[in-house]
Amino acid sequence: MRKSTFLLPVLVIAVVVALSSIFIVDEREKALVLQFGRVVSVKEDPGLAFKIPLIQEVVRYDDRILSIDVQPLEVTPLDDRRLVVDAFARYRIANVEQFRQAVGVGGVPVAEDRLDRILRAETREVLGSVSSKDILSSDRAALMLRIRNSAIAEARALGVDVIDVRLKATDLPQANLEATFERMKAEREREATDERARGNEAAQRVRAQADRTVVELVSEARREAEIIRGEADAQRNAIFAEAFGKDPDFFEFYRSLSAYERALTGGNSSLVLSPDSEFFNYLGSSTGRQAR
C-alpha cells in the first residue's frame, strides 16, 4: 500500500516531465531550442521534437510570407517635385538563428521596425535618382525591383529575405495640391483658349471662302442673266421689227394703245393736250386708223 502510494506521484511527475520534453513543430513555423538564452537547436522540419524540461525553452517563428506596411515618406525626385510615397513589402524569415541573434527577444516587431527603416532609406534613394514622370509612369515596376534588390542585402543581416516591394500610392503633399490644381486649371484654360482661337480662325476661313463662293456664283448668275436678257431683247426687237415690216399701221396702232395705257392711268397726275394733237389721232379716227 505504501509502495503504490509512493509510486503514483513519481509516475505522475515522470509523465509530466516526459510531456514537457516533447513539443510539436507545425509546418507553418520554425522553432529554436534555447538553453539559458543560447540557441542549442534549430527545428525547421514539421513533427515531434524534444528538449530538456525546465532547462530548455522553445521559441517559435512564423515560416510563412509576412507583410509589412512601410510608413509613408516624402521623397524629392530629380525634378524637385515632392511626392508622398506609400509602400508595402513582403518578406520571410530565412535564417531563424540569425534572426534571433539580430532582434533578440523583441522578435518580429523589432525586425519589422528595422526593416521599415531599411525600406524607407532605399525607397528615398532610388526614387530620388529619377524624375517624377518615371515614378508615375509604367517604369515604376522597374523602380520597385530596384528598391527590393537594394533592400535584400541589408535585410539578410536580420536573417530575412525581402520577396517583393510595392508602391501603393504616390501623391503630392497636401500643401502642394491646391497650387498644382490651380496650375493644371490654368493650363487647361490656356489650351481651351488656344482651341477656341484656332476654331475661330478656321471659321473665318470657311466664312470667307463661302462669301467668296457666293459672290462668284451671284456674279456668274447675273452675267448669264444679262446675256439671256440681251438675247431676249434682241429677239423681241427682231419680232417687233418683223411685225412692223408686215403691217406698219397695226404696229402704230398697238404703240398708240400702249401709250394711252401708260399715260391715261388713274391718279393725281394731269395731262394737258390739244384736242387736235397727234396723240389722239387714233381716238379721233372713225375707222381706227391714223388720220392723214
* Total strands: 8
CATH class of the largest domain: Alpha Beta
CATH level-3 fold name of the largest domain: Tetrahydropterin Synthase, Chain A
Largest sheet: 3 strands, antiparallel
Which percent range describes the beta-strand content? Answer: 15-25%
Number of helices: 7
What global shape is seen?
A: rod-shaped
* Rg, nearest Å: 56 Å
Which superfamily, in CATH terms, is the homologous superfamily of the largest domain?
Band 7 domain
Mean pLDDT: 80
How much helical structure, as a percent, in the residues? 40-55%
**Strand order of the biggest β-sheet:** 3-2-5
| Uncertain parts | none
Number of domains: 4
SSE order: HEEEEEEEHHHHEHH
Query: Based on helices, strands and strand pairing, what is the structural class?
Result: alpha+beta
GO molecular function: peptidase activity
InterPro entries: Band_7, Band_7/SPFH_dom_sf, HflC
Main location: membrane
Family: Belongs to the band 7/mec-2 family. HflC subfamily.
Notes on the structure:
This protein is an alpha+beta fold and 292 residues long. It has 4 domains: 2-62, no CATH class; 66-171, Band 7 domain (Tetrahydropterin Synthase, Chain A); 193-246; 248-292, no CATH class. The chain is built from 7 helices and 8 strands. α3 (107-127) crosses α5. The model has no long low-confidence stretch (mean pLDDT 80).
